[in-house]
Structures are given as structure tokens and as C-alpha cells.
Amino acid sequence: MGEPELMQDYTSIREEVAKLCQKFPGEYWRARDKAREYPSDFVAALGEAGYLAALIPEEFGGAGLPISAAAAILEEIQAQGCNAGAVHAQMYIMGTMLRHGSDEQKSQYLPKIATGELRLQAFGVTEPTSGTDTLALKTVAKRDGDDYVINGQKLWTSRAEHSDLMLLLARTTPRDQVSKRTDGLSVFLVDMNAALDNGLTIRPIDTMMNHSTTELFFDNMRVPAANLIGEEGKGFRYILSGMNAERLLIAAECIGDAKWFIEKATAYAKERVLFDRPIGQNQGVQFPIARAYAQMRAAELLVHEGLRKYEAGENCGEEANMAKMLAAEASWAAGEACVQTHGGFGFAAEYDVERKFRETRLYQVAPISTNMILSYVAEHVLGLPRSY
What we know:
Blueprint: H1 5-8, H2 11-21, H3 26-35, H4 40-48, H5 67-79, H6 88-92, H7 94-100, H8 103-115, E1 120-124, E2 140-144, E3 147-158, E4 165-171, E5 185-191, H9 192-195, E6 200-204, E7 213-224, E8 228-229, H10 235-271, E9 273-274, E10 277-278, H11 283-311, H12 317-342, H13 353-361, H14 370-381
Parallel strand pairs: 1-4
Antiparallel strand pairs: 2-3, 3-7, 4-5, 5-8, 6-7, 9-10
């Protein structure tokens, strides 16, 4: 019996992704970062190579691969010094469409997403007043004939300016009228091109890293009722089931970042000579890099266990949450070691360390903060009283 693909680590896919990434070196990313531009050429190259269709079933033109393959792709992108933040949403929100979309919706949209004709890169959940308290969101969708009319606001919706489609979570039943607190939210597939200037306004947000994030305003935006994903009022469950995938894939990206930082720091520590010896000969330089490596390897094992359970259909909430937290901490520790090893050069843009340092810091806050993960573990794993 052959070895499971996850245990094989998708070596061939990683090698091909690495080759593609080498066409987009540090100079490319520094230019995009400086101009705050979306890496359209990079995204197009990934699409043409079929990587953005990795999770789409073969019957719709995709590769039909499991989530562990998507994790390998995203990790390798980060490990090569590139930034998967421009494309990762299409991976982690794909499950909502695949699991809960109708046959008509899949037939209409998935083949075009697979070819790259359409991009599904925007995910509208977070709002200014609710933050991570998703059940408190205020965006409202009211049925009006064959449409839903949507009013409200979303915040930190990344890639909205560069996506043809968006998954949007909105309240369809008032909170005080639902029997269960998790009921009353629904998921819609929004045609961004049709909605823009027809009830949808997009405002970019300037941030510390080039992440193409925005805030969205809905003013009587109409969405066809046919674009409701699954059942009305069950959207929170659909989004929740996709969050484990999101956390595992982001964790994989963080592992890739950590590997990039560790490789950079190790190489520089070997090459940089001061006082007639390489600085890497000093334990004060060695130990932070070695510790970061140990942190990365431990987090990587938990990522793999989470992916295994996800693909087996088991509850992987514990592993997905902890993997995301530990991988984000590992990438930050590796980044800190890399900056410290490079000294002043760590702050020079041409070394790419400071850019990656800014980019990886995001993942201790998003898509879910470390404190929220600890609250989850305390309540759902350890059985401690709910704290919020």
C-alpha cells in the first residue's frame, strides 16, 4: 500500500510551486509593497498553473485535491519569500461553496473560478462594532421578491477590489426572533462587479503591510435570492465549519514564513564574519535560531495532525486553533531571530526581512486573535467556564 499523500509532503507540488515563485523574487515584492499594489502577475501565474483550483472537484475543472495539498501550496509560497495573502481566501472559503452550495451554483461558478475567469477572494464577515463577536453583526439582508436587499458595513475585507465574487455573512432574522443564538445569519455569494456602485462602496485601508484590505458599505445592495448559499438562517454554521480550514491553512503559511526566516538567519550567521569568526559560532546567535526551529517543527506536527483529522471528517477544532496559534508564534519568533541576527541589515528593505517581519505579525491577530484561541481551548478542551 502506498504511503498517504500527506506523509509524502506533496514534494512534487512543492517543487513546482518553488519554481514558479522564483520568477517573482524579492525585487518584485518590494516594488509591490512600496506602491501598495496587488500582485496581479503573481496571482495570474498561480491561476494559470492551476494552483488556485486545487480544491475544486475535477468535474468542475479543478484538481480535486484535499486541503493538505492546499496547505502545502500556501506553505511553499511563504517559504520562498512570496506572500500567499493575495490568494489564500480562495482556498479557505472554497469549502463553504463545495459543502453548501447548490448544484446550480457550483455549475455556474466553479468552472470559471477554476480557469481564473472569476476570482473568489473576498470574505465579508467582520464588522466595526462586532469584531470577533460574529453573532452580534449588524449587516441585514431582507427578502424582497426575487432579491435580498442588504444594508450594513464590513471591515477588514481583504482583496475586495480584486475579487469578482465575495462570500458575505448577513443577518436575515433579527436576534430577538431566533430560537437558537446561532440561527438567523445567512451566507450570500455576491457578484462584486454588478454590486459596485449599485449599493456597494469599497474603501481601501492603508495598513502596515501590503494586504489589500478594505471596508465595505452596503446601501440597499440587491443580491439575487438564487445566490443564497444553503438554507436561510444557517449561515453561521457554514462559516464556522470553514473556520477550521482557514486556521489550518493560515498555520501552514506561518510554518512557511518560519522556514524562510530560519533559512535566512542561518545563512547570514554562517557568512557574516566579525572578530575573525562567523557570528553563527556564538551561542547568543545560535540559540534563538535553534529555538525558533524547534518551535516551528512542533507547530508543524500539530498542523499536520489537524489536516489529517479535517480530511478524515473528524472534529479538528482543538488542533486547528492551537496549530494556528503556535505556528503564528513560531513564525514571529523566527522573524525576531532573523532580524536580530542581521542586526542593522534586518531593517534594510533589500534584505526582505523587514517586509516579511511585518507580514507575519498579522497572524497573531487575524484571522482570530491568540486570546480568542486560548478562550476556546479553556472552554471547549479543558471544560472551564465560558469567559465571554
